[in-house]
Amino acid sequence: MLDSKANDTSTKDVLELGGKSYSQRLLIGTALYPSPSIMQSAISKSSAEIATVSLRRQQGSKPGDYEAGSDFWELLKATGVDLLPNTAGCHSVKEAITTAQMAREVFKTNWIKLEVIGNDYNLQPDPFGLLEASEELIRQGFEVFPYCTDDLVLCEKLVNLGCKILMPWGAPIGTGRGLINPYALSVIRNRFPELTLIVDAGIGKPSHAVQAMELGYDAVLLNTAIANALDPVKMAAAFRDAVKAGRTGFLAGAMQERSLASPSTPETGKPFWHQQ
Amino acid sequence: MHIYFNGEKIETHHTVLGKLIEEKCPAGEYAVAVNESFVPRSEYFSVNLSAEDKVELVAPMVGG
Questions:
Q1: What mean pLDDT value characterizes chain A?
Q2: Can you tell me the ipTM of this complex?
Q3: Could you say which of A29, A61, A99 has the minimum Cβ distance to residue B27?
Q4: What pLDDT does residue A69 have?
Q5: Which of A39, A86, A106 sits opposite B31 (nearest CB)?
Q6: Distance from the Cα of residue A23 to its chain's centroid
Q7: In the prediction, which pLDDT does A4 show?
């Protein structure tokens, strides 16, 4: 099934997500940027069509407080991207469900990046809470984007509940370690060839994004790798190009690895060779 | 009575959620939950507040 996707050049290569089509396969976060203008420029340079957002207690806007409230909302609307609200920081099923419901009212979308955090040390998803929250939110009509680990059993259970999208981590959030278990990600890809799979979290360098796309993943979501770069706008461009390169490489069909060397230059006619 | 508003214990004379929200006069887009349960905007004036209730008022924020 993956081979057929790689060989199919008959249709335009679009990302189908939650009933909409997108030409870009990089999703971007909105947090941690040094300034509002850098956030806007990075989003623009990345060409991302989807950005993640959150809900937090409204403390009231102060001058320069762009990260919350109406100032941020106006900045974000100006980018023109589609929004994917998250339930970041939720540790219980109830918190996550309530946050999703509030997000639906505020952002007017039924999309929700579902995070149910089980461990504050590595911010690892709580698999049990994730399943329970996913089931309820799907029942309430949400399009659930579950942030999960690379555990195949968890992924199977999410799919059985009705998830049409999975977002397994590359590595814990904000670590920049890349794909710490590409084998597990590859197994998930091969197990669910028709599902939309997005590597989310842990990406640090453009090469990590290339690797994820070369595995056949449909998209990559990242935030810290761009926002914390020395030059976030330049890094946004790098990731835009990396995701494209990885996707094109996947569709082109990479050569098979070999155990032994195989010369690329023809042996026939090679000078200075004498039969013994 | 005392309630909690965004984690802070406050004194309020309002017994209806909608009146409390009006007093807080939030700017821009926001959503509300009471005791960890979402309250749709259309129901703000249908929800009564009791002592020790926990009200959360949230707004759009950056996120990853």
A1: 91
A2: 0.96
A3: A61
A4: 56
A5: A106
A6: 15
A7: 45
User: How near does any CA of chain A get to the CA of B22, in Å?
Assistant: 14
A26-83: pLDDT as tens digits: 999 999 999 989 999 999 999 999 999 999 997 654 444 444 556 778 888 888 999 9
Q: Which residues of A touch B (CB under 8 A)?
A: 29-33, 39, 52-61, 67-70, 72-73, 76, 85-86, 88, 94-95, 98-99, 101-103, 105-107, 173-174, 223-224
Longest dimension (CA), chain B: 38
> Are A73 and B32 inside 8 Å of each other by CB?
no
Residues ≥6 apart with Cβ < 8 Å to A146: A114, A125, A130, A134, A158, A163, A165, A166, A167
Q: Kindly determine whether residue A55 and residue B57, on different chains, have CB atoms separated by under 8 Å.
A: no
Q: Report the predicted TM-score, pTM, of the whole model to 2 decimal places.
A: 0.91
Q: How far is A13 from chain B (nearest CA, A)?
A: 26
Question: Phi-psi region for residue A96, left (φ > 0), alpha (ψ -120 to 50) or beta?
Answer: alpha
Determine contact, residues A114/A145, Cβ cutoff 8 Å.
yes
**pLDDT one-digit tens code per residue, A2-13:** 444 444 544 689
* Interchain CB distance below 8 Å, A30 and B27: no
Match 């994730």 to its residue by tokens: A130
Give backbone dihedrals phi and psi of A27, rounded to 5 degrees, phi first: -105, 145
Of B30, B36, B62, the CB nearest to A53: B62
A91 burial type by CB count under 10 A (0-12 exposed, 13-18 middle, 19+ buried) = middle
Task: List the one residue out of A154, A29, A123, A141 whose CA is nearest residue A84.
Answer: A29
Amino acid (1-letter code) at residue A61 = S
Question: Is A113 part of the annotated catalytic residue set?
Answer: yes
Give the C-alpha separation, A131 to A233, whole Å.
Answer: 36
Residue of B nearest to A29 (CA): B64
Q: Which stretches of chain B score pLDDT less than 70? A: none
- The number of C-alpha atoms within 13 Å of A133 and in the hemisphere containing its C-beta is 30
Predicted pLDDT at A60? 53
- The answer to whether B63 contacts A173, with C-beta atoms less than 8 Å apart, is no
CA proximity to A28, closest of A50, A55, A54, A7: A50
